[in-house]
Design goal:
Low-confidence stretches: 1-13, 289-311
Order of helices and strands: HHHHEHHEEEHEEHHHHHEEEEE
Largest sheet: 3 strands, mixed
Helix content: 40-55%
Number of helices: 12
Strand order of the largest sheet: 1-2-6
Distance between the termini: 57 Å
Radius of gyration: 20 Å
Structural class: alpha/beta
């Protein structure tokens, strides 16, 4: 079998890391034509690398330890028992999982429906299906979004600096670029396209940020946000499974995470955790708060707070 170094070698002698560096330079220089050419060169090599990556469940569990939230955790939290043939393949290599473990990430299996009656795994249904003792989910802003099915690596106790959504998106792009260099990105060819899209659209997005009523969907729908941020349903799902498994909130008290979900009222939905959230072992989650609308650098956010407070 070819190793990663062999896969990284391109036919013209230029390795993958050099191609990515050339792409980054072309983007910095504003050379759209050259960036497009390099993107087309990179994608086949990244696809070949992805096809080489397969990870057995038991091996992943051994590497991740308590940070492995697989089918057993899903069953314990939501009562969904998955047949082995229906569990998707883990798309991360041994090296990726080892690095993720060191970086404080956890591996989680997400499902998007209840198999018996085909009900979608939205926040509304999670309220009634979760088996966490003492857990209550109260919603003020509804969302029909459902988690993306499959395995995901999620950073625990992490958030970006509190900046406007576009600046946060640029921070996210830089983080993804770094992780691509480290070989820690699932489906990296998609992220190459996402970074390219952001650079192309940034001048226009910066201009609409100055308007009085910018459309939040224009930024939330960027590929880098679709791929790199949680939806509001994924944030709630991950919180439920993580808390059931570890008895803790993975975002950390007082932290906030902006998702890629736009509320029915047209703003970016957020997830917040409050301080002093554990009382008598009970956890109450709140999604949405009418009084929390605000304007930040021209973008109207309708936060969907998910936080724990005293019962």
């Amino acid at each position: 079998m070819e190793n990663k170094e062999q896969i990284n070698s391109s036919e013209n002698g230029e390795d993958l890391s050099t191609l990515k560096e050339s792409l980054r330079q072309a983007i910095d220089d504003g050379d759209v034509q050259r960036a497009g050419e390099l993107k087309e060169e990179i994608i086949p090599h990244l696809e070949a690398l992805k096809e080489k990556i397969r990870m057995p469940f038991e091996s992943a569990k051994e590497i991740m330890g308590e940070d492995y939230l697989g089918p057993e955790a899903v069953e314990e939290t939501f009562g969904i028992k998955l047949k082995e043939k229906n569990i998707p393949t883990i798309p991360f290599s041994k090296e990726e999982l080892e690095m993720a473990k060191r970086n404080g990430q956890f591996l989680i299996l997400r499902v998007n429906e209840y198999k018996k009656n085909r009900e979608p795994m939205n926040i509304r249904n999670m309220r009634y299906r979760s088996s966490i003792k003492g857990l209550e989910i109260v919603t003020a802003v509804q969302s029909d979004s459902i988690p993306r099915a499959g395995w995901a690596l999620v950073k625990s106790d992490a958030s970006f600096a509190f900046r406007d959504y576009l600046r946060e998106t640029e921070d996210l792009a830089q983080y993804i670029s770094l992780k691509m260099d480290e070989g820690l990105v699932k489906s990296p060819e998609k992220y190459v396209e996402a970074l390219y899209e952001l650079e192309n659209k940034k001048p226009y997005l910066e201009s609409i940020m100055r308007t009085s009523k910018p459309d939040a969907n224009l930024i939330a729908d960027l590929q880098v946000n679709r791929l790199g941020r949680q939806s509001i349903s994924e944030a709630v799902y991950d919180t439920c499974v993580y808390y059931k498994k570890k008895g803790a909130l993975f975002f950390g008290d007082g932290k906030q995470v902006r998702t890629n979900t736009v509320s029915p009222l047209g703003g970016i939905m957020e997830l917040h955790m409050a301080k002093d959230c554990f009382v008598d072992g009970k956890l109450r989650l709140f999604v949405g708060a009418e009084e929390c609308s605000y304007i930040s650098n021209g973008v109207k956010f309708k936060p969907a707070f998910v936080f724990a407070r005293r019962s």
